[in-house]
Amino acid sequence: MTGPHIRKARWMWQSATGTEAEAIAVENEVGQDMATEVRRQLQLDPEPAAKKLLDQISNRLTPCIANKLRRFSFETIKKGEPNAFALPGGYIFVTRAMLELCQWNEDEMAFILSHEMAHIIRGHVMERIISNSAIPIASKAVPITGLFAGWLRKVGTKFLESAYSQDMESDADILGIRLVAAGGYDLKASIRLLSRLGELNQASGESKLSIYFSSHPSIRLRINNIKLNEQST
């Protein structure tokens, strides 16, 4: 499924030879294609309170993004364990279980969403997709509409839950904390959330962190990194 010879998707061609606006526009096209497939495979949560909470956070975090070409949208999935994942172009999905894990606290959810936004801004999302998929696109002449949705249909949405590298996760934490601070949220909420997860894990004697949290760097390391960056914000 992987290899350097297949990393010629149209967005990469645009990134190398086109403008930043063109590259982001193609990235958005890829994300829109994949988001349609996610909605087909997973049931969205119609709960108005969930939409309201995500909209409130979006209205505070999105204006803090330096690159105004970036756009973000947030949607809730009804079922599943605590999880969140990002697609190219700014499409971010979170499960209802994640909202419940954060106790519907806006400051804690802002940390989760800003972390996913950071993955998109840093280019981690497209890098992971392209480096792990056999999508036979050789030039800008090949249309990408439907291509990524078809690929996602084959590999399944579980791919979206797989881990980034530890360096990418730490990078997303650092930028995420800066976004949280810029949005006026409580920086200590992220530490509070991670500490609570650590306590739950110790009390149970087994992992309760779900795929999403267990694939990240250790909780102690994440808290230390957040504290260090909290002092510099």
Spans of at least 5 consecutive residues whose pLDDT stays below 50 are 1-9, 136-142
Q: What radius of gyration results from the CA coordinates?
A: 18 Å
Cα-to-Cα separation, first versus last residue:
41 Å
Quaternary structure state of the chains depicted: single chain
Note the run of SSEs as H and E: HHHEEEHHHHHHHHH
In total, the number of strands is 3
How can the largest sheet be summarized?
3 strands, mixed
- Count of separate DSSP helical elements: 12
Strand order of the largest sheet: 1-3-2
Q: Estimate the global geometry from the Cα principal axes.
A: globular
Mean pLDDT: 80
Structural class of the secondary structure composition? Answer: mainly alpha
Strand content: 5-15%
Query: Helical content, roughly?
Result: 55-70%
Short description:
The chain has twelve helices and three strands; from the N terminus they run H-H-H-E-E-E-H-H-H-H-H-H-H-H-H.
Question: Which helices and strands, and how do they pair?
Answer:
Elements: H1 10-17, H2 20-41, H3 48-61, E1 73-77, E2 84-87, E3 91-95, H4 96-101, H5 106-121, H6 124-131, H7 147-155, H8 158-161, H9 166-182, H10 188-204, H11 210-214, H12 219-232
Parallel strand pairs: 1-3
Antiparallel strand pairs: 2-3
Helix pairs in contact: 1-2, 2-7, 3-5, 5-9, 5-10, 9-12, 10-12
